[in-house]
Design goal:
heterodimer; A: alpha+beta; about 30% helix; B: alpha+beta; Ribosomal Protein S5, domain 2; 6-stranded mixed β-sheet; exosome (chain A); KH_dom_type_1 (chain A)
Chain lengths: ~325, ~290
């Protein structure tokens, strides 16, 4: 529970402690000996031929951990999966990133990984939706698609031989994100799921849970209209489009966006996994407690949410 | 500086216009404030203040020195600000110097009053040990650990908390010297004097974005600012200092409007800070027991 710094009063402190204890007691004890800290011995059951993987080292005939985490075994390979680590992309992950550079035929995106990811112009659906070879003209018009600092949603395509990461955005659902806010949470809080795009119908809000810990909360946009019909009409279209994007978000939607964003902030402060169900639960709790959007970041809501989560997990445990 | 896309910029601006900012705050509300005192054991007083993601540390170090010839009845206070490269990569090397200088000048103006020391938030005459001969020099050093906007307000709050935490040893003059000689002094290890911080002002920065102004701007919001006015207000509601940043000019009526808003907000901020400081002091006391 690193980093919770709230001015709690005495009762709130006790309540939070109790909720956290309850959560701890609920966590599964099955693999408790599989979690290691630095210098813990990893038992290898006298197997001669094991492969030492990431986070392990041999010391005096024993295999010891050099990282904190969970021991994972794949056949002969033994490695430590760290608990708090930078985002490690896997092929097929849906990520949210920010454009840092427009280069030749590619955009470079900041995605919270140890290096910037590459989105090639050729792995993008062109705005006109026609499959064709990318021309020099397309290359010159790249800034009409994304420019520096734009927030973009994409999918991890593959790793190159030199370790660079390639992205693709070959569908209408990927692309530029506008009218909303980008939140950054620790990437280990976002688990890979079936769905990362969520349209919360009743709130008219879109939530995109990027596997890299970047979460987009914004006004709902319908499946993107084919934006640019013809390259020659570019300038005129561009104007009308930017005009459209300057329309104000309705106040009720904005309130919902802020409410959901604050729910995510509180969840990440408390270190709970972030899924759309948990977010909605937190939003409902805030409505039920009659907690204003601006009060959600205060201590009382943190404590209430921790208690709610403890209760929810204990219930689901009983059922299961 | 943070990079924001056009869409995000527009969203933030629209939020300020509609009085719901990105984290749900209204234009005139502060982020949660967290105060911890006594964080540096070798200083006479220290405090760490968090406002949202902005985090600063202030420490007070007291040393015996000679008062200046012009003001023999007053002690000396110096304020320094350092911006850590941890807060933002651009602060590395000399990158943070400009900002540090700007902040320390603004703090000196707001907390110390004129060069004569008149009207200072800290009562300089209370720092005198022997008039014209010995006084306390206070060195107030502050460090920006993490920067998410509104640094000046956070620094002023941290300095206020650090001064409230400061204990200055009692000094006994053991042998009264005659003439120009320096008297011998005996610094007590047991008896300490607490500072009276009731006159230390708080600083409220109002950032003008578009047609409205906001308090406690995050760095994202500060990237839109046209100008910002920092007003330091003491407990009586009197203005102790005023600085303006940013290129764009302001209408005089807006400034006077801002001042009255700051005056009103200062009461709330002052009482909130006071309760946070006393809670932090109580907590520190518990740990020592």
């Amino acid at each position: 529970m690193r980093g919770i710094q709230l001015s709690l009063n005495q009762t709130q402190k006790i309540r939070l402690q109790r909720a956290l204890q309850q959560l701890e007691s609920l966590s599964s004890k099955v693999n408790s000996n599989a979690s290691v800290t630095v210098a813990d011995t990893i038992p290898i059951n006298n197997e001669d031929s094991i492969l030492k993987g990431h986070g392990t080292s041999e010391r005096g005939g024993e295999v010891v951990a050099t990282l904190c985490g969970v021991v994972e075994r794949v056949n002969k390979l033994v490695y430590v999966r760290t608990l708090r680590a930078r985002y490690k992309p896997e092929v097929g992950d849906i990520i949210v990133g920010r454009v840092v550079e427009v280069a030749q035929k590619r955009w470079k995106l900041e995605i919270n990984f140890s290096q910037d990811a590459v989105l090639m112009l050729s792995s993008m659906n062109l705005p006109d939706g026609i499959q064709r070879r990318r021309t020099a003209l397309d290359e010159l018009n790249m800034r009409y698609i994304f420019e520096e600092n734009d927030v973009v949603c994409a999918e991890v395509r593959n790793f190159q031989h030199d370790g660079t990461l390639q992205l693709q955005a070959r569908s209408q659902k990927y692309g530029k994100l506008e009218k909303g806010q980008l939140l950054k949470v620790p990437p280990y809080l976002v688990k890979r799921q079936k769905h990362h795009f969520h349209h919360l119908d009743e709130y008219a809000v879109d939530v995109i849970l990027g596997c890299n810990g970047f979460i987009w909360v914004g006004e709902h946009v319908d499946v993107r209209e084919s934006m640019v019909e013809d390259q020659t009409e570019n300038a005129g279209e561009q104007n009308s489009r930017s005009h459209k994007s300057l329309e104000d978000t309705p106040i009720e939607t904005r309130r919902r966006i802020c409410q959901i964003a604050n729910a995510i902030r509180v969840l990440s402060n408390l270190g709970f996994n972030i899924t759309v169900e948990v977010i909605l639960e937190a939003v409902n709790l805030s409505s039920k407690l009659d907690c204003g959007v601006d009060e959600m970041l205060g201590p009382e809501f943190h404590v209430a949410l921790a208690e709610r989560e403890a209760q929810r997990r204990s219930q689901s445990k009983k059922k299961g | 500086m943070v990079g924001l896309s056009l869409g995000e910029k527009h969203f933030i601006k629209g939020g300020i216009d509609q009085n719901i900012r990105s984290d749900g705050r209204k234009r005139d509300s502060y982020r949660p404030i967290f105060v911890e005192t006594g964080v540096i054991p070798q200083a006479n007083g220290s405090a760490r203040v968090r406002m949202g993601a902005t985090e600063v540390i202030a420490s007070v170090k007291a040393e015996l020195g000679r008062p200046s010839a012009l003001h023999p009845d007053k002690g000396k206070v110096a304020i320094f600000v350092d911006c850590s490269a941890v807060a933002e990569p651009t602060f590395e090397g000399r990158g943070g110097e400009e900002l540090s200088a700007e902040l320390s000048v603004a703090l000196e103006r707001c907390l110390l009053g004129g060069t004569s020391g008149a009207g200072a938030g800290i009562d300089l005459t209370s720092l005198i040990v022997a008039e014209g001969k010995i006084c306390w020099d206070l060195y107030i050093d502050s460090l920006v650990i993490s920067s998410d906007g509104n640094l000046l307000d956070a620094l002023a709050a941290a300095i206020k908390a650090a001064l409230a935490n400061t204990a200055i040893p009692k000094v006994n003059i053991s042998a009264a010297a005659s003439g120009d000689e320096q008297p011998e002094v005996d610094i007590s290890d047991e008896e300490f004097l607490q500072f009276d911080t009731s006159a230390v002002p708080v600083i409220i920065t109002l950032t003008q974005v578009g047609r409205h102004y906001i308090v406690d701007a995050t760095s994202e919001e500060e990237s839109h600012m046209s100008s910002a006015v920092s007003i330091s207000v003491n407990r009586k509601g009197h203005i102790c200092g005023l600085t303006k940043r940013g290129g764009e000019g302001l209408d005089p009526s807006v400034v006077s409007d801002m001042i009255s808003v700051a005056q009103h907000l200062s009461e709330l901020l002052m009482s909130r800070l006071d309760s946070e400081i006393s809670a932090a002091e109580a907590e520190g006391g518990d740990e020592e027991l």
